[in-house]
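Practice problem: predict the structure.
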Amino acid sequence: MAGFRRVPYLFSGMTPPPLPPDVFGARPPAVQAYIRYLEARLADLEARLGQNSTSSSKPPSCDPPYLKPAPSKASSGKRKGGQPGRPKRSRPDLPAGTVIALRPSACDRCANVLSGDDAQPLRHQVVELPPVRPVGTEYRRHRLACPSCGRIRCPARPAEVRGGYGPRVQAVCALQYRTATALEPIAEEARAHIAGKPANADETGWRERPQAGLAVGRGDRSRVPGPPVPRPQGAG
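Answer:
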């Protein structure tokens, strides 16, 4: 091809040397800006080309066929969790509000009835928060009339009773509102990211024959709408 010159760095995997400052400075400003744009674009494409399921959030189905699976780490021979001889670390037991005693009723070998108590039973505590239930406090202000002059007197509400919700309810509502407000930009960004991605259906195992109106898949054969098949002339 006339005027074509092979670039030795294009497919060799090597990074071409940068332009000398005097050569780059001799170019017009528009050309310099365009060169910087192309360099940034090339770096971005190279970074995307090297991404896979092990180095990004891409699913394994997007990996190229030539990508080898990551080698499994050699087993050290140690079991997971705490190693033998390590001092046990656990939370301190709390005063138990409810104690449920579990006793075996019979021997699992000879079926003899068992009775009695264990002096040192195995203990297992489950810590749980009580269910949050609103508790209403009603203030009834009685209006009483003076038997001497007939004036009706009604006491005022206590100074701490300002509205229909107590300070704990207001604190929980404020915490929920501030948390939701802080997470709203993140949720909107995630929703926009998901909505902007195309939905791809995996049709690897399907073979379609539109002319006959059949879709044949893995162990499934069903009639689907398709264009009518022309019948030969003279056929009954």
